Amino acid sequence: MLFKSPAQDLLSKNVDAIIYPSMWYSELPFLTSLQTQQMWSYAHDIPLLAAGANNPSLGSGGTGIYKGAEDAIFTEIVASGGLMVGVYSQVMLRKRVPNPEIDDLGKKMDEFHINIDPHVKEFNSIVLDTSKGGFYGQLCYNNNEENQICCDFAIKTTTTSSDVKKNSYTYYLVAYSGVRSFNGIYNGGVEVCGIIACLNTSLSSCGQRFPNYDDIEWPLKFEQVTIKASFEKNENKTQYPNSVLSSIRPIPASQTVWEKREVEADGKKLVERTFSLTASLWDDLTVAVVDYSPILDSRLSDEERIVINANQHVQYIGVESVKNVDLIVFPESTLTVNKTTAVELIPTDNPCFNDSSYPFYPIFVRDLSCAARAASSYVVVNLVQKVRCRIFDHGENCKTHGYLFYNTDVVFGRYGEIDSLYHKYSLFGETELDRPQPCDDVIVFVENTNFGIFTGFDIFFKNPTRCLSRYSLDGIIFPSVWFSELPFLTGRYFDWFFFELTLLAALQTQQMWSHAHNITLLAAGAKNPSLGSGGSGIYRGVEDPISLEISAEAGSTILPSDEKERDTDELAEEMDGFHLGIDPDIAGILHNSFDFIQLIDFLSQHIIQPFWTLGKIFLTRECATTDCVVILPPT
């Protein structure tokens, strides 16, 4: 498998797949069995049917069915004896077999014997400094003119603290070019650019595993990894995308990108290769949204109200239920709400360091920044931002104040820095605020997951979603203060739908959008039941939502919550104290003497989002007012 003949020579025969029986002895950090099988299938983009002889005590084993650049259909490596069969069929080609949790698999590999690459000590290397949040630079191996390689790294990391003292890996960036022996049987030329795990800061400890998986903690998370290098263009040289997780299995192909580009340098033809970790790792990402009830005491000044609500935000960021959460989302309009209390914000600044470098940040902004830093979480809050007008900016605010004022979602990063700023595009009655031109296309990058972000009424319009459409997004962050309206702009999501028309409220608006676009939506709603605002949820596109909240009761809630499921009647009774507006245009529809079927036909032509209802809406020809809209129980 590792040599040009016969493995690569077969590819010129236009084969459709490779049959590969083996008895492979795994070696860390680059040549464990499944790792090697996937890199070969991935690099040549051809199916590989690999059957491995299993002897864990000697370190042999590893079987898989691979689909080239797509995710593997089946992989298995075990630390115990026995037989494992993967059945290959056309049905399985269309659906990948889900893998168990990485940690569960990692524990099972404690008894599996793995060899260590004896040449690791020869690598040129630098320790990855986790305190700097990443590494952006180049590392070269220069043995002689014929054996040299330079590796470009772009790595972004975050670190979480732990109360339990356990073992954790140290990571080295490595570069190597030379000839190595494979157990004294074969020799082969090897060029390496990589990141490898080590037991400590000694290079000789690299490629080894801690003996007890339960004694390992994982404080370091790789949010971005890109490795790039150029190689001599030569038919006898092949580059491979190589990865291995703690489970001794490779990262799924769909979560990486392997790119090739032909370049020239100093008159030499080269192949530039880039290997990137880019896809969402949702199993490793934890999120929370806060259905927040702001303190609106009229006896307080604007400044006092802001400080009190900011302190509440800080308390929620620090509660036990969101400890070690990666992303926390707060609603719209729960801090500053007008231009008299607007604040200036500069991207990449860290207000937590409110010293002479950043002297002008209000205390409440500093406190939010420091809370995000203390929790090591991304935190999204909403406030009014003021931005100094440029010479080509126009509008009343520029003429009067010299500033533009935006409804702004502020994303604080894990270290308290201002990571991103999004300016709301579809303003709703916010006459004193400005609309960005053009709409913002802000992407928030959390744990290899790309989030778009928009606010409130933005959800109903082509922009800013069109601005975001150019990106491959894994989810949407959606702070809002939503005023529910019957029959189409209010309601609660239910487990099943009985009819064609929905009572669309905050939750139904959120659900319909997530469902229509089949994308995760993290919706945080500002709660004021007496005014009819509220409703938060974590939605998963066409799948069931993870958690929902809308209530007429006072108080705030962090989602996901442990609330037990309740039936429809109980939920409906709870909403008696929740103010719901009525769509004033419904009477105009009824004046046209539409019967029920005609109304459904009308709606189906004009509504592009999916609507259903748990109950029926009963209309008669005689109805001329909204009083004739009656909600019936499901049948």
TrEMBL record:
Residues 285-577 form the CN hydrolase domain. Signal peptide: none annotated. It holds the Pfam family CN_hydrolase. InterPro entries: Biotinidase/VNN, C-N_Hydrolase, C-N_Hydrolase_sf, Vanin_C. Keywords: Hydrolase. GO terms for molecular function: hydrolase activity. Belongs to the carbon-nitrogen hydrolase superfamily. BTD/VNN family. This is CN hydrolase domain containing protein.
